Amino acid sequence: MRLELVPRATVSPAARLLAPIGALILSFALGGIIVALMGRSPLTALDIYVLQPLSDPWALQELVVKATPLVLIAVGLSFCFRASLWNIGAEGQYVVGAICGSALALATHGTEAGAWVLPAMLGLGILGGALWGLVPAFLRVRFGVSEILTSLMLVYVAELMLDYLVRGPWRDPKGFNFPQSVGFDTAATLPILGDGGRLHVGVLFALAAAAVAWVVMTRTLFGYRLRVTGDAPRAARFAGFDERRTALAVFAISGGLAGLAGIVEVSGQIGQLKPSISPGYGFTAITVAFLGRLHPLGILFAGLVMALTFIGGEAAQISLRLPFDLTKAFQGILLFCVLAADALVSYRIRLVRRGVLAGRAPA
Amino acid sequence: MKRAVLGAVAVAALAIMAGPASAQQKLKVGFIYVGPVGDHGWSYQHDQGRKAIEKELGDRVETSYVESVPEADSERAIEQLARTGHKLIFTTSFGYMEPTLKVAKKYPNVMFEHATGFKREKNVSTYAARFYEGRYISGQIAAKMSKTGVIGYVGAYPIPEVVAGINAYFLGAQSVNPAVKLKVVYVNSWYDPGKEADGAKALLDQGVDVLTQHTDSPAPLQAAEARGKLAFGQASDMIKFAPKAQLTAIIDNWNDYYVARTKAVLDGSWKAQDTWGGLAQHMVVMAPYTNMPEDVAKLAKETEEAIRSGKLKPFKCPVFKQDGSQVECKGGDGLSDEQILGMNFYVKGIDDKLPQ
User: Fold this and answer.
1) B306 — contact with chain A (CB < 8 Å)?
2) Which residues span the membrane (chain A) (predicted)?
3) Residue A327 lies in a domain
4) Are A178 and A169 contacting, i.e. CB atoms less than 8 angstroms apart?
5) Which residues of chain A does B77 touch, with a Cβ-Cβ cutoff of 8 Å?
6) Which among A62, A277, A280 is the nearest to B76, CB-wise?
7) What number of H helices and E strands is found in chain A?
8) Are A242 and A78 in contact (CB under 8 A)?
9) How high is the pLDDT of residue B17?
10) CB 3.0 to 4.6 Å from A206: which of A71, A242, B127, B140, for a disulfide?
11) Contacts of B179 (CB under 8 A, 6+ apart)
12) What is the mean pLDDT of residues A219-248?
């Protein structure tokens, strides 16, 4: 006896819409059970995890700040994943973007350099990330090397490069030999929206990226080509779509956006280069991309949900003493439920019995 | 009589009023940890300090913590503590330095204590422990116990604190065996049991038979135990993870400091300051000397006592760099605190290159 997934002939639009909402509700229910097993009230947990952050202006702002790099990277990744190309190395592209942009910030440190510095930094960030992303794409189209492996391995190369720079040539001479660069000048720092807060201009980039991606994906030939290449590679070939060009393009786009996220985070949030400038945004963004079902608006929403789990998780640690592992467990449950709901909407499960052999292990 | 009754009523009224008032004035103390509280190393020991505050000061305080806070994304977590009424906040990793200063600027009435940093403000203190004192002792033990004459070190990052520890360890080892050799592996993480164990195994494969570590999990110690080799515990007494391998452990004891600083806030005497305590201040404590012969344990105890009393300085001048040049002696008969805090060279005899 075994289970089989059979594609459904028709899927109602309502089911498509309700699936992620159902998945969200189910994940909260499962999370609540875990919280109850840990001896806390699930309702209090829901309040602290979700409702309080959503009703507090400070937390809302933090939510947006935290979601910014996730959304930027995930929007880029959605291009790759749509074309069934697996860029696992956004973390590395993020780091290289941060390095390239910061190079200018450090070169102009202490000088009278004007307003051109910041836009140039952002441009360099995009360029650096895109070039780093093009390496696995090139290796794939030229030599047929698996982009999953190369993009992932280049993450470590990028991280070690950053490590070398902040320990060596870019180390703050007044920093007791600690591995970190000097703090960026105002000219190299992303402006803050409003006053006193941490809401930087990078937030607008994330919104813009999602909007542009939506237009490109739904309204352009390029977007169409992408979807066809991903969904039906053979059909794409018959239509004369050039797979190689598509691969290079999507890796450049996702690398560029990851690079932008890197320089935005360093210049808007951290304010200097350090050995570690990302708590794994490049990897978390993969989850965000799939949570958002590779749709730009979905990703926007998913980025905020993911940020909420982090911020609510911190609040729950402080006031309920719930461990950080619960946050990670909940993120896992969420992704699992969304993917499962997606699968169940498109497929139905069939139980296959095997006559006389029923119950025996297949030979 | 009437006056007495009135007086009693007044006292009772005051007591009633004072009751809830003092409950309200419970001091909230917050902690930010870089690893999980269950790492049995660095963060675990800070959490022991938090528990000591609760035990010592009971219902005058309330404590909370946030664990596994990435250094690159810590500002929000620190601010979350500050804005939820915590008046004393300990940020317990070097990488929290800039975020702590940023939040401290926004919340001038909250007092911050940043571990292992060097930037202070009106409301930001710094504190650290002279772990290198313990390293010197373990170095002596390692050289005595090693049969191959090759000892190993699993380091986290080549930052001054770690480098100073390596140097002290080697100088201690050299003091009992001038021919001793040291091999170092950096794993580029404070807490990553897998990588730490891999680093340890790589060293053991190269003929190392006594291992020490400057990372937070018991993994290297366990790797030594599994291979029948010897090692040292780190941050906490890890003897239960390696009953046959642990020689001693350098224990971080934050309890006294944390209780004292919390008391200082309670009685209004808290001031920003820099504290760097060692064996003498009980900030560094040696776990029992085990799995070694009597004479080695005796030597270790004597060294411990000599460092505690100030008779022995691990970085006693002259100190030589790898290239043979002598380090300028800025602290009388030893290197100055500043020189130790910014140490970025290996001492002569270490057969390895410092990653720069």
Assistant:
1) no
2) 21-43, 63-81, 93-110, 116-139, 148-166, 199-217, 246-264, 276-292, 299-320, 326-345
3) no
4) no
5) 314
6) A62
7) 14, 2
8) no
9) 44
10) A71
11) B149
12) 88
Treating both helix axes as pointing N-terminal to C-terminal, what angle do A243-265 and A202-219 enclose, rounded to 10 degrees? Answer: 160
B83 to A58: CB separation less than 8 angstroms, yes or no? yes
In terms of CATH, what superfamily is B131-251+285-311?
Answer: Response regulator (3.40.50.2300)
pLDDT-derived band at B16, boundaries 50, 70, 90: very low
Mean of pLDDT values over A26-53: 92
Our measurement of the distance from residue B12's CA atom to the centroid of its chain's CA atoms, rounded to an integer in Å, reads 48
Q: Which is higher by pLDDT, A330 or A16? A: A330
Min CA distance, B298 vs chain A (Å)? 37
Backbone angles phi, psi at A184, to 5 degrees: -70, 150
* Fold agreement (B27-129, B131-251+285-311): yes
In a domain, A127, yes or no: yes
A285 vs A91: CA distance, rounded Å: 9
CA gap A138, A150 in Å, rounded:
10
Which pLDDT value is given to residue A355? 55
- Interchain CB contact of B344 with A (< 8 Å): yes
Q: Which residues of A touch chain B, with CB atoms under 8 Å apart?
A: 58, 62, 65-66, 163, 167-168, 176-179, 183, 196, 198, 265, 269-272, 274-280, 311, 314-315, 317-319, 321, 323-325
Question: What is the distance between the alpha carbons of residues A200 and A267, in angstroms, rounded to a whole number?
Answer: 10
Is A167's CB within 8 Å of B355's CB? yes
Chain B hits for A278, CB-CB cut-off 8 Å, are 72
Pick from B50, B62, B73 the residue to mutate for testing the A interface (most A CBs within 10 Å): B73
Q: Does domain B27-129 have CATH number 3.10.150.10?
A: no
User: Which pLDDT value is given to residue B356?
Assistant: 66
- Does the structure show a pLDDT above 90 at A178? no
- Tokens 């994906």 sit on residue: A217
pTM: 0.85
Taking alpha carbons only, the member of B284, B286, B234, B235 closest to residue B256 is: B284
CB contact under 8 A, B80 and A315: yes
Domain count, chain A: 1
At position A342, the amino acid (one-letter code) is D
- Chain A contacts in chain B segment 9-38 (CB below 8 A): 30, 36-37
Q: How far apart are CA A44 and CA A312, in angstroms?
A: 12
Put the strands of the sheet holding B88-91 in their side by side order.
B61-66, B27-32, B88-91, B111-115, B124-129, B274-277
In a domain, A18, yes or no: no
| Residue B160, preceding peptide bond in cis (omega within 30° of 0) | no
CB pairs under 8 A between A and B: 79
Of residues B147, B39, B56, the one with CA closest to residue B92:
B39
Q: What are the residue boundaries of the structural domains of chain B, listed by start?
A: 27-129, 131-251+285-311
**A318–B84 C-beta distance less than 8 A:** yes
